[in-house]
Design a protein that fits this description.
The complex is a heterodimer of chains A (about 190) and B (about 200).
Chain A: H1 8-18, H2 22-44, H3 47-63, H4 74-99, H5 101-113, H6 120-130, H7 134-145, H8 150-157, H9 161-178
Helix pairs in contact in A: 1-2, 2-3, 2-4, 3-4, 4-5, 7-8, 7-9, 8-9
Chain B: H1 3-12, H2 20-37, H3 40-82, H4 89-98, E1 103-109, E2 112-117, E3 129-135, E4 138-144, E5 149-152, E6 155-161, E7 167-170, E8 175-177, E9 189-194
Antiparallel strand pairs in B: 1-2, 1-4, 3-4, 3-9, 5-6, 6-7, 7-8
The chains are: A mainly alpha (about 190), B alpha+beta (about 200).
């Protein structure tokens, strides 16, 4: 994900989409929906929740469109909204599962049972990501999948760069242990 | 496993795929929701409108209740004054007839009716004057004549009449006139009138 200011044609497109025209905004949704959905899925591990979060991301983006000043790419701004919504979702989910731990576990199993991963490696990686603490997962998702630098991820997550570096380091150690058995043939 | 190997594994992992129909309908779904929810400014207006309406309704209710209370209070005061036995012409006539030129005042206060008589029957014949004085909730009234001094509602008053309907009450610290009823009476509510229909 490049962090430069958006080019003029993208600015025009965004300006039209963020004007009070919901149909034009739908065009922007079309351009970014796959990225947002994938990001939300990496953060939640559930397709159902990822769809809800993606929907919420776009609705929020439209409602808060005045706060987009064009200093970063539109996709970066969407990315920030998605990750923050996902972190809040995770906090809510954790609180709920504390109260209904057994029930919640069953629900998660049921929810994920229907998710069809394209292959075993994808399933294992997502399972390993799911087990990471939410903030470490956000750091990994942004730096690995969204190609953010540590400084950019720090800006998106509103924390210090050193904090991101530490979270990435800690997350890598855990992921290496959990994904140890994956052979090179599988890659 | 080193960092680049881990990165390769992570990047190889793909997310579950959604059918193309999903991505075709998703943007329309968002647009529909936005249209249904309305624009943010309208959203805020809608959220504020019921609060504003309730606030206004409450304020109007309070004002109406206050107005009714005030109006009833006035009515009650007026009713109390009009129910005063001292305004009963027959009663006053009979009392004055019983003690000719002797009645200085008939006073009605918390203790009931008091007849104040002169010892030597030198009260000049003149039209009786009805006076009512209220100090807050405490009201007293009297029927007296011009030039008489009466004690009423804790006030010592000299009642004067000019014969043309003008009445002046002179207290220790104030002077009240029915030409300027709202002035000079201080915190007291005063009402005075000639009972002209009574002839002695």
């Amino acid at each position: 994900m490049a962090r430069m200011a958006p080019p003029d044609d993208e600015i025009n497109c965004i300006q039209n989409g963020l004007a009070d025209d919901t149909e034009a905004f739908a065009t922007l949704v079309k351009q970014h929906q796959k990225m947002v959905l994938a990001l939300a899925f990496r953060m939640t591990g559930s397709l159902e929740d990822a769809e809800d979060l993606a929907q919420e991301t776009f609705l929020r983006a439209y409602r808060q469109r005045d706060s987009f000043r064009g200093e970063s790419k539109f996709s970066t701004w969407l990315c920030q909204i998605t990750v923050n919504l996902s972190l809040n979702w995770r906090a809510r989910e954790n609180r709920r599962s504390e109260v209904h731990s057994k029930w919640a576990e069953n629900v998660m199993v049921e929810k994920n049972a229907g998710d069809e991963f394209p292959d075993e490696l994808s399933r294992r990686v997502q399972k390993a990501l799911d087990r990471l603490p939410a903030k470490q997962r956000a750091a990994i998702v942004l730096t690995i999948y969204e190609n953010c630098s540590h400084a950019e991820a720090a800006k998106l997550l509103n924390c210090m760069e050193a904090t991101i570096s530490w979270r990435v380091f800690a997350a890598r150690q855990k992921l290496k242990r959990r994904l140890k058995g994956i052979s090179h043939e599988q890659l | 496993m080193n960092n680049s190997e881990l990165e390769a594994i992570l990047k190889k992992a793909r997310t579950p795929e959604r059918p193309e129909e999903f991505f075709e309908t998703f943007p329309q779904q968002i647009a529909r929701q936005l249209n249904r929810a309305g624009r943010p400014s309208r959203h805020i207006e809608r959220r504020w409108f019921p609060r504003l309406a309730w606030g206004l309704a409450t304020a109007i209710c309070i004002l109406v209740a206050f107005a009714i209370g005030h109006w009833r209070g006035q009515i009650e005061t007026k009713t109390a004054a009009s129910n005063d036995i001292l305004q009963n012409v027959k009663f006053v006539q009979e009392t004055l007839a019983m003690f000719p030129n002797q009645v200085r005042a008939i006073v009605r206060d918390n203790h009931g009716l008091n007849l104040i008589l002169s010892n030597n029957g030198n009260v000049p014949a003149s039209p009786p004057i009805y006076v009512r004085v209220c100090d807050g909730e405490n009201c007293s009234s009297c029927v007296t004549f011009s030039g008489q001094e009466v004690q009423i509602a804790g006030q010592k008053l000299t009642v004067l009449s000019d014969g043309r309907g003008g009445i002046i009450l002179e207290g220790k610290q104030f002077v009240w006139s029915n030409d300027l009823p709202s002035g000079m009476g201080g915190h007291l509510k005063i009402e005075a009138k000639n009972l002209n229909s009574i002839t002695l």
